[in-house]
Protein backbone atom coordinates (compact mmCIF):
# COMPACT_ATOMS: atom_id res chain seq x y z
CA UNK A 1 0.00 0.00 0.00
CA UNK A 2 2.84 2.33 -0.97
CA UNK A 3 4.77 1.72 2.24
CA UNK A 4 3.78 1.58 5.87
CA UNK A 5 2.20 4.23 8.07
CA UNK A 6 3.42 4.82 11.59
CA UNK A 7 0.92 7.57 12.38
CA UNK A 8 -2.10 9.49 11.13
CA UNK A 9 0.23 12.41 10.29
CA UNK A 10 2.24 10.17 7.95
CA UNK A 11 -0.94 8.99 6.29
CA UNK A 12 -2.24 12.55 5.82
CA UNK A 13 1.14 13.63 4.43
CA UNK A 14 0.98 10.94 1.77
CA UNK A 15 -2.59 11.94 1.02
CA UNK A 16 -1.45 15.51 0.32
CA UNK A 17 1.46 14.23 -1.78
CA UNK A 18 -0.91 12.14 -3.91
CA UNK A 19 1.05 9.02 -2.93
CA UNK A 20 -1.87 6.85 -1.78
CA UNK A 21 -3.63 4.15 -3.80
CA UNK A 22 -7.21 5.11 -4.68
CA UNK A 23 -9.01 3.15 -1.90
CA UNK A 24 -6.71 4.63 0.76
CA UNK A 25 -7.20 8.11 -0.72
CA UNK A 26 -10.99 7.69 -0.45
CA UNK A 27 -10.65 6.43 3.13
CA UNK A 28 -8.64 9.52 4.13
CA UNK A 29 -11.03 11.86 2.29
CA UNK A 30 -13.92 10.28 4.22
CA UNK A 31 -11.97 10.69 7.48
CA UNK A 32 -11.50 14.40 6.75
CA UNK A 33 -15.26 14.79 6.24
CA UNK A 34 -15.96 13.16 9.59
CA UNK A 35 -13.05 14.81 11.43
CA UNK A 36 -12.81 18.34 9.96
CA UNK A 37 -10.33 19.39 12.65
CA UNK A 38 -7.64 17.51 10.69
CA UNK A 39 -8.29 19.65 7.60
CA UNK A 40 -6.18 22.40 9.19
CA UNK A 41 -3.14 20.10 9.23
CA UNK A 42 -3.82 18.98 5.65
CA UNK A 43 -4.31 22.59 4.53
CA UNK A 44 -0.96 23.51 6.04
CA UNK A 45 0.76 20.69 4.18
CA UNK A 46 -0.93 21.72 0.93
CA UNK A 47 0.27 25.31 1.40
CA UNK A 48 3.81 24.08 2.06
CA UNK A 49 3.71 21.82 -1.00
CA UNK A 50 2.44 24.72 -3.12
CA UNK A 51 5.32 26.91 -1.96
CA UNK A 52 7.82 24.21 -2.88
CA UNK A 53 6.30 23.89 -6.36
CA UNK A 54 6.48 27.64 -6.91
CA UNK A 55 10.19 27.53 -6.07
CA UNK A 56 10.87 24.88 -8.71
CA UNK A 57 12.32 25.95 -12.05
CA UNK A 58 9.73 25.72 -14.86
CA UNK A 59 9.93 22.75 -17.24
CA UNK A 60 8.73 22.77 -20.83
CA UNK A 61 5.67 20.59 -21.49
CA UNK A 62 6.03 18.46 -24.60
CA UNK A 63 3.16 18.79 -27.04
CA UNK A 64 1.66 21.67 -25.06
CA UNK A 65 -0.67 22.88 -27.83
CA UNK A 66 -2.02 19.40 -28.54
CA UNK A 67 -2.67 18.80 -24.84
CA UNK A 68 -4.53 22.10 -24.51
CA UNK A 69 -6.66 21.28 -27.55
CA UNK A 70 -7.54 17.89 -26.05
CA UNK A 71 -8.54 19.54 -22.77
CA UNK A 72 -10.75 22.14 -24.45
CA UNK A 73 -12.35 19.48 -26.64
CA UNK A 74 -13.24 17.20 -23.73
CA UNK A 75 -16.68 17.16 -22.12
CA UNK A 76 -17.05 19.26 -18.96
CA UNK A 77 -16.97 17.28 -15.71
CA UNK A 78 -20.34 16.28 -14.31
CA UNK A 79 -21.13 17.23 -10.75
CA UNK A 80 -21.51 14.13 -8.61
CA UNK A 81 -24.80 13.67 -6.79
CA UNK A 82 -24.47 11.85 -3.44
CA UNK A 83 -26.44 8.63 -3.30
CA UNK A 84 -29.68 8.79 -1.38
CA UNK A 85 -29.56 7.01 1.93
CA UNK A 86 -29.46 7.42 5.67
CA UNK A 87 -26.37 9.62 5.58
CA UNK A 88 -24.10 7.31 7.60
CA UNK A 89 -21.41 7.24 4.91
CA UNK A 90 -19.57 10.49 4.13
CA UNK A 91 -19.84 11.71 0.52
CA UNK A 92 -16.40 10.34 -0.45
CA UNK A 93 -17.53 6.82 0.46
CA UNK A 94 -20.94 7.14 -1.16
CA UNK A 95 -19.34 8.26 -4.41
CA UNK A 96 -16.82 5.39 -4.23
CA UNK A 97 -19.18 2.55 -3.29
CA UNK A 98 -22.32 3.89 -4.99
CA UNK A 99 -24.59 3.45 -1.96
CA UNK A 100 -25.05 4.37 1.69
CA UNK A 101 -25.09 2.18 4.79
CA UNK A 102 -28.75 1.22 4.38
CA UNK A 103 -28.06 -0.37 0.97
CA UNK A 104 -24.88 -2.37 1.59
CA UNK A 105 -25.27 -5.93 0.19
CA UNK A 106 -23.91 -7.57 3.34
CA UNK A 107 -22.93 -11.24 3.52
CA UNK A 108 -22.78 -12.99 6.89
CA UNK A 109 -19.27 -14.36 7.51
CA UNK A 110 -19.71 -15.38 11.16
CA UNK A 111 -22.52 -14.97 13.68
CA UNK A 112 -22.76 -11.24 14.37
CA UNK A 113 -20.23 -10.35 11.67
CA UNK A 114 -21.12 -9.24 8.13
CA UNK A 115 -18.89 -8.16 5.28
CA UNK A 116 -19.12 -6.58 1.85
CA UNK A 117 -16.04 -7.21 -0.28
CA UNK A 118 -15.51 -4.75 -3.12
CA UNK A 119 -12.45 -6.72 -4.22
CA UNK A 120 -9.02 -5.63 -5.41
CA UNK A 121 -8.58 -2.01 -6.49
CA UNK A 122 -5.23 -0.35 -7.19
CA UNK A 123 -3.34 -3.11 -5.39
CA UNK A 124 -5.55 -3.04 -2.29
CA UNK A 125 -8.35 -5.22 -0.95
CA UNK A 126 -11.43 -3.15 -0.08
CA UNK A 127 -14.09 -4.24 2.42
CA UNK A 128 -16.90 -2.96 4.61
CA UNK A 129 -17.61 -4.61 7.97
CA UNK A 130 -20.70 -4.71 10.17
CA UNK A 131 -20.07 -6.00 13.71
CA UNK A 132 -22.80 -6.76 16.25
CA UNK A 133 -22.61 -4.76 19.52
CA UNK A 134 -20.22 -6.48 21.94
CA UNK A 135 -18.95 -8.88 19.26
CA UNK A 136 -15.29 -9.96 19.48
CA UNK A 137 -13.29 -10.35 16.26
CA UNK A 138 -10.95 -13.39 16.26
CA UNK A 139 -7.43 -12.66 17.48
CA UNK A 140 -5.18 -11.87 14.52
CA UNK A 141 -2.14 -10.08 13.19
CA UNK A 142 -1.35 -8.72 9.72
CA UNK A 143 0.92 -9.76 6.87
CA UNK A 144 0.93 -6.18 5.54
CA UNK A 145 -0.74 -2.83 6.20
CA UNK A 146 -4.37 -2.29 7.15
CA UNK A 147 -6.27 1.00 7.38
CA UNK A 148 -9.67 0.90 9.08
CA UNK A 149 -12.03 3.87 9.19
CA UNK A 150 -14.92 3.65 11.67
CA UNK A 151 -18.03 5.17 10.08
CA UNK A 152 -20.55 4.21 12.78
CA UNK A 153 -20.33 2.82 16.29
CA UNK A 154 -16.94 2.09 17.83
CA UNK A 155 -14.50 -0.69 18.72
CA UNK A 156 -11.63 -1.18 21.13
CA UNK A 157 -8.43 -3.20 20.93
CA UNK A 158 -4.97 -3.22 22.49
CA UNK A 159 -4.07 0.03 20.70
CA UNK A 160 -7.03 2.06 21.98
CA UNK A 161 -10.61 3.10 21.20
CA UNK A 162 -11.81 4.01 17.71
CA UNK A 163 -15.11 5.84 17.15
CA UNK A 164 -16.81 7.48 14.19
CA UNK A 165 -14.22 9.17 11.98
CA UNK A 166 -11.17 7.51 13.60
CA UNK A 167 -8.61 5.60 11.54
CA UNK A 168 -6.94 2.52 13.03
CA UNK A 169 -3.56 1.67 11.50
CA UNK A 170 -2.25 -1.89 11.80
CA UNK A 171 0.70 -3.85 10.42
CA UNK A 172 2.81 -6.89 11.28
CA UNK A 173 3.61 -5.40 14.70
CA UNK A 174 -0.05 -5.30 15.77
CA UNK A 175 -1.53 -8.42 17.35
CA UNK A 176 -5.08 -7.71 18.49
CA UNK A 177 -8.65 -8.85 19.14
CA UNK A 178 -11.00 -5.93 18.32
CA UNK A 179 -14.28 -5.77 20.26
CA UNK A 180 -17.28 -3.71 19.13
CA UNK A 181 -18.74 -1.50 21.84
CA UNK A 182 -22.15 -2.47 23.18
CA UNK A 183 -24.16 0.67 22.39
CA UNK A 184 -24.63 0.04 18.64
CA UNK A 185 -23.23 -1.98 15.72
CA UNK A 186 -19.81 -0.97 14.43
CA UNK A 187 -19.51 -0.29 10.69
CA UNK A 188 -16.01 0.09 9.28
CA UNK A 189 -14.28 0.65 5.94
CA UNK A 190 -11.06 -1.37 5.63
CA UNK A 191 -8.24 -1.20 3.09
CA UNK A 192 -5.50 -3.86 3.22
CA UNK A 193 -2.56 -4.83 1.04
CA UNK A 194 -2.06 -8.34 2.45
CA UNK A 195 -4.16 -11.00 4.23
CA UNK A 196 -4.84 -11.18 7.96
CA UNK A 197 -3.35 -14.08 9.92
CA UNK A 198 -5.48 -15.52 12.73
CA UNK A 199 -3.67 -16.70 15.83
CA UNK A 200 -4.21 -17.16 19.56
CA UNK A 201 -5.36 -20.25 21.48
CA UNK A 202 -7.55 -22.59 19.39
CA UNK A 203 -10.32 -22.55 21.99
CA UNK A 204 -10.46 -18.76 21.97
CA UNK A 205 -10.45 -18.70 18.15
CA UNK A 206 -13.38 -21.09 17.99
CA UNK A 207 -15.26 -19.09 20.62
CA UNK A 208 -14.64 -15.84 18.71
CA UNK A 209 -15.70 -17.36 15.37
CA UNK A 210 -18.96 -18.59 16.89
CA UNK A 211 -19.51 -15.24 18.60
CA UNK A 212 -19.62 -16.42 22.22
Estimated radius of gyration: 20 Å
Proportion of strand residues:
25-35%
According to DSSP, the number of beta strands is: 11
CATH class assignment: Mainly Beta
* Molecular shape: elongated
User: Alpha-carbon distance between the termini?
Assistant: 34 Å
Main β sheet profile? 6 strands, antiparallel
Total helices: the number is 6
The run of helices and strands is HHHHHEEEEEEEEEEEH
CATH superfamily: Jelly Rolls
- The CATH topology is Jelly Rolls
Helix content: 25-40%
Question: Could you explain the architecture of this structure?
Answer:
This protein is α+β, with helices and mostly antiparallel strands and about 210 residues long. The protein has helices spanning about 10-15, 20-35, 40-55, 65-75, 90-95, 200-210, and strands spanning about 105-110, 115-120, 125-130, 140, 145-150, 155, 160, 165-170, 180, 185-190, 195-200. It has one domain (about 1-55, about 90-210): Jelly Rolls. The chain contains six helices and eleven strands. The strands form three sheets. Strands 1-2-3-10-5-8 form a six-stranded antiparallel sheet, with helices on one face. A three-stranded antiparallel sheet has the order 7-6-9, with no helix packed on it. A hairpin with a 2-residue loop joins strand 1 (about 105-110) and strand 2 (about 115-120). Helix 1 crosses helix 3 (about 40-55) and helix 2 runs antiparallel to helix 5 (about 90-95). The two termini are about 35 Å apart.
Amino acid sequence: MTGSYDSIDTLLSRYVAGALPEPARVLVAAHLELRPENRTFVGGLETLAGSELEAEAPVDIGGRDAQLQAIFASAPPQASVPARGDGVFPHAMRDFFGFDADRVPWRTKMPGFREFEMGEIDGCHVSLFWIRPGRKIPHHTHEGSELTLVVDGAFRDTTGRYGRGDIAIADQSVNHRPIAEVERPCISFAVTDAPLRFNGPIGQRLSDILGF
